[in-house]
Amino acid sequence: MPATRSARQRKASADAGELAVVRIDVSADDSYAYKISCTQCEVPRPGTGTRAWSTRRPGEDNGYLPALDRWILHLASRHPDAGAPCLDYLPEARARLQERRESR
Ligand SMILES: [Zn+2]
User: Ligand 1 center to residue 39 CA distance, Å?
Assistant: First the structure.
């Protein structure tokens, strides 16, 4: 049986660590979109002001890893001392991003 959205959200939040806010949106076609925001970082928004750093990747099961990979790299470069469980996967995240770039 597939995991529920709230179970997925709990797991992703636990992996992403304390600096992350993880949200899973359900798209019109019932697929999931993972959004991971950083509670510490702000990036300039075109026009006025700033917004929280965030990454959003659609797709049901395969949306989780691309979003988490981007988050892992954000953590590694900006918050290396955060100690989030997902930092254990940094080498894999780098390899996966590399792979995706090369298969394009
Ligand atoms: Zn950050």
Answer: 7
Instruction: State in Å: Cα 13 to ligand 1 middle.
Output: 15
Q: Range of 86's domain?
A: 5-102
- For residue 95, what pLDDT is reported? 94
pLDDT of residue 15: 95
Three-state secondary structure call for residue 93: helix
Q: What pLDDT is attached to residue 62?
A: 58
Counting the structural domains of the chain, the total is 1
Residue 47 alpha carbon to ligand 1 centre in Å? 21
Q: What's the gap in Å between 18 CA and the centre of ligand 1?
A: 11
pLDDT profile of the chain (104 residues), mean per 10: 83 95 86 92 88 82 80 95 93 90 77
- Helices 5-16 and 64-78 cross at an angle (nearest 10°) of 20
Surrounding residues of ion ligand 1, Cβ less than 5 A? 38, 40-41, 78
